[in-house]
C-alpha cells in the first residue's frame, strides 16, 4: 500500500528497475524463485516513483518514503 507523491518522466534502465524491485512482494517473479519464472508481469511497463508506504490502512503517517516502481508492493 502506498501513495505516489512523484513520478519520474524518464524510464530507468533495466538494471536500476531490478534494484527498485527489491523488497517487493512480487519480486518473487524476477528470477527469485524455484519455479523458473524470469520476470514480473509489471516489470516492462513499470515507472520510477517516490512513494509514501503504509503497512496498515489505519496509519496516519507513512511508515517509510522510498524511491521505487509504481507497481511496488511491500512484503509483510
Q: How would you describe the overall organization of this protein?
A:
It contains one helix and three strands, in the order βαββ. With 76 residues, it is of the alpha+beta class. A three-stranded antiparallel beta sheet has the order 1-2-3. The mean pLDDT is 83.
What count of domains describes the coordinates? 1
Q: Please give the largest β-sheet.
A: 3 strands, antiparallel
Query: In which order are the strands of the major sheet placed?
Result: 1-2-3
Compute the average pLDDT. Answer: 83
Residue share in helices?
A: 10-25%
Strand content: 15-25%
Specify the number of helices: 1
**Silhouette:** flat
For the terminal residues, how far apart are their CA atoms?
A: 11 Å
Which structural class is indicated by helix and strand composition? alpha+beta
Poorly predicted regions: none
Order of helices and strands: EHEE
Secondary structure: number of strands: 3
Computed over alpha carbons, the radius of gyration is: 13 Å
Compile the SSE list and pairings.
Blueprint: E1 2-7, H1 14-21, E2 48-53, E3 64-69
Antiparallel strand pairs: 1-2, 2-3
Amino acid at each position: 500500500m502506498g501513495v505516489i507523491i512523484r513520478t519520474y518522466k524518464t524510464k530507468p534502465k533495466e538494471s536500476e528497475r531490478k534494484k527498485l524491485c527489491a523488497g517487493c512482494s512480487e519480486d518473487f517473479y524476477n528470477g527469485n524463485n524455484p519455479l523458473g519464472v524470469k520476470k514480473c508481469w509489471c516489470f516492462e511497463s513499470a515507472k520510477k516513483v517516490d512513494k509514501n508506504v503504509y503497512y496498515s490502512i489505519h496509519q496516519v503517517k507513512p511508515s517509510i518514503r522510498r524511491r521505487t516502481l509504481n507497481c511496488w508492493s511491500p512484503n509483510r
